[in-house]
Design goal:
Blueprint lengths: L1 H12 L16 E2 L1 H11 L1 H22 L5 E15 L9 E16 L1 H69 L4 H35 L7 E2 L14 H11 L1 H21 L5 E12 L7 E11 L7 H67 L5 H36 L11
Parallel strand pairs: 1-4
Antiparallel strand pairs: 2-3, 3-5, 5-6
Helix pairs in contact: 1-5, 2-4, 3-4, 4-5, 4-7, 4-9, 6-8, 7-8, 8-9
Length: about 425
């Protein structure tokens, strides 16, 4: 029995054996939420790819427009060596073994329905690329906000764990005094030693989670090491500025995912029209200018020509029909995706909207729960000091308070994350200041 008391006293007297008294001061740089969102967007691979797709779509749109006004132009230069003297177009009376031919050609389609279809298709592709860029921007912002809030949550939970350690140490001191006076049995001290050990392990886990969260935030903002998050205010989350029906309409009108799906359907429809235009004739005009000589940069003789061409494809071994069938399937698939996404948007908006409202209510409940847990712990500590309650009641109160504080922390940042998810679906910010939930 004396050995048991010695173990308890050594454990209580060496708090460093369980966990350090205080969290070391971090020297890592800090970043604000709006700055983190701006920096992460430029570094996110998917967002960079979306910007490149806009550039590609803009060039496709520009080329489709220029096809109505500017012909296709090509130039070339050939030098031919013959094994013996051959006819010389530059000087028919003087055969030569070397012939240099320079040419410049231009061709313009006067009548072609494919040009109109390409104009519609490239317009839809540009709209799809722009919607995709907006979608990726909000996705990157959502992931960055999640990493940012992970840092803040880990900081708060580390504080909660440290307070749990302090309460366990304080309770252990009370239990030791009661055991020494004979008012309590030795198992009371053992129970609190176990609680102190568990609290210390939980604190170490929270510190590890905080370190990993800072490294993840640093990765997203382009830092080579950990980055800390600027604290946010803890004011209650405000009501959403729009009602659920308005949010549904906004998601279907300007939601980036739905806009991209609609644009993809229009692009597929234009692609089908473009393939069907191959059944109609094409009328074009072409010009050719050639120069002949026996040396580079020929100029001894030249000839020009203008050609009017009418092409009416009748049968190409079924290749045209295969392309039309593929385009029709692509159109049907794009339409099915758009219709399914329309139904999914209604579900996602409702779920995100309800999640925000539920999280706001959860914060209120968690605040009440923390107040109750604090009062319960205060009363149980007083009763245990007076010998009116058992050690298990005090331990339950300590654990209940730690859980209540952790629930409040999680609820606060879950509200912010729910708002970010709703904004990603709608494609716009509901509050101008991201420091406001």
């Amino acid at each position: 029995m004396l050995a048991l008391l010695l173990v308890i006293q050594v454990t209580a007297g060496a708090p460093g054996a369980v966990v350090a008294d205080s969290i070391p001061v971090d020297t890592v740089p800090r970043i604000a939420l709006d700055e983190a969102i701006r920096r992460s967007a430029r570094l996110d691979p998917d967002y960079v790819r979306a910007l490149g797709q806009i550039e590609d779509a803009e060039w496709g749109r520009r080329a489709a427009r220029l096809a109505f006004f500017i012909p296709s132009v090509a130039v070339g230069l050939d030098e031919t060596k013959y094994s013996e003297n051959f006819f010389n177009p530059a000087d028919p009376t003087n055969p030569t073994s070397t012939l240099v031919v320079g040419r410049a050609s231009a061709e313009y389609e006067i009548f072609s329905l494919r040009k109109f279809s390409e104009l519609s298709r490239t317009r839809a592709e540009l709209e799809s690329a722009e919607a995709g860029e907006l979608d990726q921007r909000f996705r990157a912002a959502l992931e960055t906000e999640s990493s940012y809030y992970d840092v803040l949550v880990s900081q708060e939970l580390s504080r909660v764990s440290q307070e749990r350690v302090n309460r366990a140490r304080q309770g252990l001191g009370v239990a030791r005094a009661r055991v020494a006076s004979g008012a309590a049995v030795q198992t009371d001290s053992l129970q609190l030693v176990l609680e102190l050990t568990r609290a210390g392990v939980d604190l170490l886990r929270q510190r590890n989670a905080l370190r990993n969260a800072r490294l993840e935030l640093g990765r997203r903002v382009g830092a080579l090491g950990p980055v800390d998050a600027e604290p946010l205010d803890t004011t209650p989350a405000p009501e959403l500025p729009i009602a659920l029906p308005e949010a549904l309409r906004a998601a279907l009108d300007q939601g980036p995912q739905y806009r991209a799906a609609v644009a993809e359907e229009r692009s597929a429809e234009a692609g089908l029209r473009s393939q069907r235009s191959d059944y109609l004739p094409t009328f074009s005009v072409g010009g050719l200018h050639q120069r002949y000589d026996t040396q580079i940069f020929p100029g001894a003789s030249n000839i020009s020509s203008v050609t009017f061409s009418l092409s009416f494809p009748l049968w190409d071994n079924g290749r045209r029909e295969i392309e039309v069938s593929r385009a029709r399937v692509n159109r049907d698939v794009a339409r099915a995706i758009r219709e399914d996404l329309e139904r999914a948007v209604r579900r996602d908006v409702s779920a995100a909207y309800d999640s925000y409202q539920t999280s706001r209510a959860a914060v209120d409940l968690a605040t009440v729960g923390r107040t109750v847990a604090r009062e319960n712990y205060r009363m149980q500590e007083m009763r245990y000091r007076a010998g009116a309650s058992e050690i298990l009641d005090l331990l339950d109160a300590q654990l209940g308070l730690a859980e209540a504080e952790a629930d409040l922390v999680q609820s606060r940042y879950q509200t912010r994350l729910a708002l970010a998810g709703l904004e990603a679906i709608l494609g716009r910010r509901l509050f101008s200041d991201k420091d406001v939930p």
